[in-house]
TrEMBL record:
Keywords: Membrane, Transmembrane, Transmembrane helix. Signal peptide: none annotated. It comes from Arthrobacter sunyaminii. Residues 159-169 have a biased composition (Acidic residues). It comes from the Bacteria. The chain crosses the membrane at residues 36-59, 80-103, 115-137. The keyword Transmembrane helix applies. Pfam families: DUF3180. This is DUF3180 domain-containing protein. InterPro entries: DUF3180. Residues 147-169 are annotated as: Disordered.
Length: 169
């Protein structure tokens, strides 16, 4: 399984930001409310980030030597997939709500209520949190490189093309 590509995260942020700006611009022109997630969405972001971090810490404790019981490899793989999905979903949320925020900013002085602007800022922070937790937990799931011959290199010649960071747990 490959690691998260930072370039793809940036592409998702930019594409969803453009989509968020366009959809919100259309909604504003047609007197519709801004497309911003509510406080329940922010609570869901916090819950998902917390669950991902909790599962990642379990894998990290096992890696750090607390091996009183065996780590289920399926659970470790699921934790890795959850971490990657959290980072990608966070980039989608970040981009969308950044686009909404940028579109709402010129209307700041014209509107009495700024709930959409503050809501989009809160979801931007939630998106940054999801990306951070996803990248951190992905790092927790990475095993150190093999050092079975004591020289800091792989013992088998067929392992030489492996990444320097090692494999995933």
């Amino acid at each position: 399984m490959g690691s998260i590509r930072y370039r793809w995260l940036a592409v998702i942020v930019l594409a969803s930001g453009a989509a968020g700006w366009l959809v919100n611009d259309w909604a504003t022109r047609n007197s519709l409310p801004p497309a911003v997630l509510s406080i329940i969405g922010l609570l869901t972001v916090l819950l998902i980030s917390g669950a991902t971090l909790f599962l990642g810490l379990r894998v990290r404790r096992w890696q750090q030597g607390s091996r009183d019981r065996e780590l289920d490899p399926i659970a470790a793989a699921r934790t890795l997939v959850l971490a990657q999905a959290t980072a990608y979903a966070g980039s989608l949320l970040l981009g969308w709500h950044a686009g909404v925020f940028i579109q709402q900013l010129p209307l700041w002085s014209l509107r009495p209520g700024h709930a959409a602007t503050w809501g989009s800022l809160a979801m931007i922070a939630g998106g940054v949190l999801m990306i951070s937790v996803g990248l951190l937990v992905e790092r927790f799931c990475r095993l150190p490189p093999d050092d079975s011959n004591g020289r800091g290199t792989a013992a088998r010649p067929d392992d030489a093309d492996e990444r320097e960071d090692g494999e995933y747990a």
